[in-house]
Amino acid sequence: MMNGGDVLIKCLLQEGIEYMFGIPGGQLLNVYDAVCRWGQEQGIKTVLFRHEQAAAHAADAYARVTNKPGICMGTVGPGALHLAPGVGTAWSDNIPLIVIVPQVNSTYADSFTLQGNLDQITMFKPITKYQKSVLKLEEIPYAVQKTFREATGNRPGPALLEIYEDAFLSKVEEKDLPIVPPKEYRAVSNPSIDDTIISKSLDLLLNSKKPLIISGGGVARAEAWDELRELAEYLQIPVITTFMGIGTISNASECLIGSSMGNDVVLQAARRADVVLALGCRFTFVMGHGMEPFWKNSQKLIQVDIDPSMIGRNKPITLGIVGDCKKFLEKIVKNAKNFERVEKRSWLDKLIKAKKNSIANIKNKASKASEPISSRFLVSQVFEFMDEDAILIADGGEIEAFTLEQINLHKPRPPLSTLISACMGHLGVTIPYGLGAKLAKPDKQVLAIAGDGAFMFNVQDLETAVRLGLKNLIYVVANNNAWGSMKTFQKFAKKQRYIDVEFSGFNYGACAEGFGCYGEQVTDPNDIKPALERARNSNKPAVIDVVVKYETHEITRLLQSAFYNLEM
Description:
- The protein is an alpha/beta fold.
- It folds into 3 domains: 2-184, Rossmann fold, CATH 3.40.50; 195-352, TPP-binding domain (Rossmann fold, 3-Layer(aba) Sandwich); 367-563, Rossmann fold, CATH 3.40.50.970.
- The strands form 4 sheets. It has a 6-stranded parallel sheet, with helices on both faces. A 6-stranded parallel sheet has the order 11-10-9-12-13-14, with helices on both faces.
- Helix 3 packs parallel to helix 4.
- The longest helix has 21 residues, at 346-366.
């Protein structure tokens, strides 16, 4: 006999799920008991967090680096409420997440029972692609399949599965409830793209004087980085990436121009291009909304996206293509090879020269080991220390801008290895992203750079990292004793009338030691790399608190003045 908890775990095992991130609750007892009794032996594990928000962020990170759905759970009512910030962040960045919450026994519906009377389906509607509520045990297998199909299909995103306690407490004979594997209920490949569309796209690119490719999260999710590089190098087209597309083309390729609109060469390419091929990207705030002065209204735009609702959003299109980026790139590369390989375009050559000058300028600024420590110097030291295949996490305002400025200046960034809360701009992902990424890729170094404000949102889950015995997981805190971006608003737009943006001095390294981590605070710029080495050799999760001066990155002023209508 199986109860509803057994059935749910059997369904998740069929989906290849390895980890379930969350906190147990009364209605979830049969689920956790199934894992304890037999699930662990078959390959599924629970990971206990100290806060459900962190659990959702960790599941999000796991999905980002594996390209598989992450699973997060919270108990009915408050547990579900706590999951929402993490789910919202995944929703904003199109990350496949399965959100599992129980509902109180139907006997107590609308009776003001403990944790009851919350319409969880409605609560999660704005931040999930799909919501399914299950009352009967027999409904669980189909509901799981439907939830996974929705989370992973088309443009991916979170999906909610709510299961009433009634279903968890019921029982059924195992032979009476067959559970089919994914290959028997959902498509394993995306539809092809019409040859006429491919020909039109190629014609626009070949006849362009200044073509530009934007590689977004759609390329990462489709794992189409090899095809992207082949197309760019064969046709000698410069490439910029969105934050979600970082790593989809290596800085070992001359075609990569940059990954941030804060980079003057990226801005130059965006403003001067005559044909733009946008692959799986959205023209969001960090992409200048596709508008002038960041882009030109006269540009021809070829936009490829798996989701038809994304086509033509913010920026008018010349050619809109609904489809998978890998399918598109495979076909256009094949067709491009019917033509001679393009010699280096003067357009690309000029951008490469401008990029080299920009790199030299940034590296010169970042090389100054002055006191107090500059954020640029801190970031350069971290990048020089970091392993070639490390997973990098960036969390915060000003420090994230300084990190993105150097993202392609040092070692190549592998695909699916750079984690940023890109579209929501949600702070506090540092610690849980590190946990999820390390569990997904235990042999890789995981290194996070965070502002001091962002770091404290989920600080309690340092204990989780210690309990799990995670090693070579290093958190670097840029400690400027401020909410840096908001202080910049007040500095330039409000004539330095500072309110609620400054902290008292705090030692985050000492705080981390209290959780059982390795921790230290650095004030000497020459001690940053030695401190990072000590962190790596500690065989513990580590926090290095680097006291930096408060300073404003140029991109912060540019974006704030452009989109908040402030005189900066």
